[in-house]
Amino acid sequence: MTTIYLVRHGEYENPRQINPVRLKGFPLSNEGIVQMERNANYFRNKNIKIIYSSPILRTKQSAQILKRLLKIPLIFSKSIIEVSSPIQGKSFLVLKEIEKYGDSFKLPYHLQKKGETVEHVYRRMKRLLKKILIKYQNKNVIIVSHGDPIMVLALIESGNPIDKQHAIHSYLSVLPYVPKGGIIKIEYNKTIFNSMEHINF
């Protein structure tokens, strides 16, 4: 089996309470650092071969903590970057609108401003995943990314479509939304999906 651990970045500093999306800044908070140190303890005996990470600061810092404590290689990839969205820089009050529509991909504002689609997010995430599954067959790999990209990949890989009828939040009973610092474990038999679970501490 090949095991992929999808790790969401830790809590980050955000005094203005805005949606950072791909903006610069927003370093890990003290709580975020503790979350990643806790994750490193969990991974210590998992024989992880490599870490792949989004290059955005909060994911970068999260991955660097894991790299330092686990003493394993780290590669940055834009394939697992945060969703490109016009809600970038806008107040967290937008989250109330997101709740109405199920997820940010279905917000009229996101659609009108040509925000990134679920299909595009999945394609780029899957592109890297395919390479990992071939290169690291029967190994254990960490991917450090962001909430929506992780949920898109995990849900579609496990056979739960996200489309015009189904939003991410349609599946919260199947797969709770990954919290900051959270981990979703997916196992593959070669390149075939086998199982998925939330790792809870």
TrEMBL record:
Report the transmembrane regions from the record: none
User: What SUPFAM superfamilies does the record point to?
Assistant: Phosphoglycerate mutase-like
**CDD domains associated with the record:** HP_PGM_like (cd07067)
Pfam families for the chain: His_Phos_1
Give this protein's Gene Ontology molecular function annotations.
phosphatase activity
Q: Which SMART domains match?
A: PGAM
**Which protein is depicted?**
Histidine phosphatase family protein
